[in-house]
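# step 3/5: fold
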Amino acid sequence: MSTRELSKMGIATVALNIDDEGHRVIDKFPVGDVEFAFYQHTADELNQEGIATPRLISADPTLRKLRLEYIPNPVDQNAVAGDAILAMLGRLHHYPANFEWRYHPHSWAESALEKSLILLALPDKTAQQLRRFQRCSHVLFYNQCLVSGDSNAGNWGKRDNGDLVLFDWERFGTGSPAIDLAPLVKGMGSKETFIDLAERYCRISCHYKLNDLAREIAIAKAWIVTEVITLLDERQKAAFPIYLNWYRENLPEWLDNTVKML
């Protein structure tokens, strides 16, 4: 058996293994309640609606272990905001939420923001601007659209036949479509990129006001800063100083330019 560690930010071990029949598979464990329930009760229903997720091979509730189909081909960051991905996300966002499913509780608590600001040690003006985004963030969470919650390029892949697949559903929940659209934008993005993305998404999915969605994408981008920094710190990931330094370098100018969208 050959094993290759694939996990980056999550708490679970994600490994590429070879099963007894010589097929490549993904083993993920220990899987949280949201993702374990997703593959047991939700994935098949979404797949039937054209929202492609890896096929579940087996689930061990004792070990909290999932064995999943291996999706062999990555999707490049520059291609992740293509129309095919926007269309799949649009189908997810349109699909009615089921109150019996288990969801990750998305929020941007003031306590989480303040913790991230301590870690980031930003200039006071920049910190105040980020606080303004947090005070507007309720628009991300009251919407009852289904969201994957983690749609970045690293969680997309293609089967050998070209079919797109979205994996890593530990943040499956409800909220604004912007929660899934913001990670598609490379880096922090700009007002122009947010408007362009919102325009293309609205053209494909036909259920959102362009200006409202562009604003929510900007807010979601700011929220992701807190999510990434606090998670990397809590989980003691090696990438923490890389992200910390990048945000310190790029956030002041980005917030100066983007706070006008609020």
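# step 4/5: annotate
The longest strand covers residues 13-18.
# step 5/5: archive (pending)
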